[in-house]
Structure prediction request, 348 residues.
Amino acid sequence: MSTPLPPAAALRRIAFLLERAREASYRVSAYRTAAAVVDGLDEAQLDLKIRTNTLKDLKGIGPKTATAIVQAHKGEVPEYLLSLEEAYAGQLPAADDVAAFRAALRGDLHAHSDWSDGGSPIREMAEAAMSLGHEYLALTDHSPRLTVANGLSPQRLEKQLDVVAELNAELTPFRILTGIECDINPDGSLDQTDELLGRLDVVVASVHSELRAPKAQMTERMLAAVANPHTDVLGHCTGRLVIGRKQRNGEQKPRPESEFDAEAVFTACVENGTAVEINSRPERLDPPRRLLSLAVELGCEFAIDTDAHAPGQLDWQYNGCERAIECGVPVERVINTRTAEDLLAGPT
Prediction:
């Protein structure tokens, strides 16, 4: 590896390599947790923690992790990461290749703000995307059915469209694409009015409920959503969590994949011009490699997205780029390598 990475990205790279080496899951989880903690710090806060030697006071950061953070912050490749790269160089995408793939991405098509379950205002998310070199960011807060995530009613979504229009006038040439992460209802319909969906730039359709439905039922549900003319991207298709969310009782169990006929669904994506999302969240990494490879074979297009809920999570696209390279995704089939104008013009 010859290309330095930001501290959080370097920690995620270490976690990725440890996962591939089949190291104990607690070690993988520790580095991903540390990356999330670093993501929550701005540059000044991280500088202060390093100068005062108090990184180890943060949750999940021990001496080895702290050393890696300090080295990455200096613009160096952490020694531990170098050793892992050397050990597994023949089995994994080179960091230079990942960086080049990431550089081809012009934007992110799945991100949340504090209008639903994100933690930051729309402007902060947009400014973070600008700082990463993005030309656009799709704002895809949740739809009404997902009340636990403060999903947007039609009235709130209309208000958000006005806010985005005002911000776009200020931030030009950067563009916030209007959008939604729309629940796929059990009958396959989308959880928002057709009129509003037709006004949006990007519709990410995702299953968030009844994830353990029978295979045939889930397949029909997804096929209906993919065929909906408003659907642009099929979000986190299996719904799995490789790192479970912490429950009230302290348990943190992974969530298995939903069962569906992947060949039928991905073929429908090709036929309807719907991109398959490569979700870059560390706890999702969805679809799994075998399904991502199948989607490549069937001719799907893809969107490499972060599903970010905070500004620092927008650099998670490196995770998706690694998996894309591993599974042979052609960069020209990734729709967010296109300009906003080309993207909104529809399939090429």
Remarks:
- The longest strand covers residues 175-183.
- The CA atoms of residues 278 and 304 lie 5 Å apart.
- The mean pLDDT is 91.
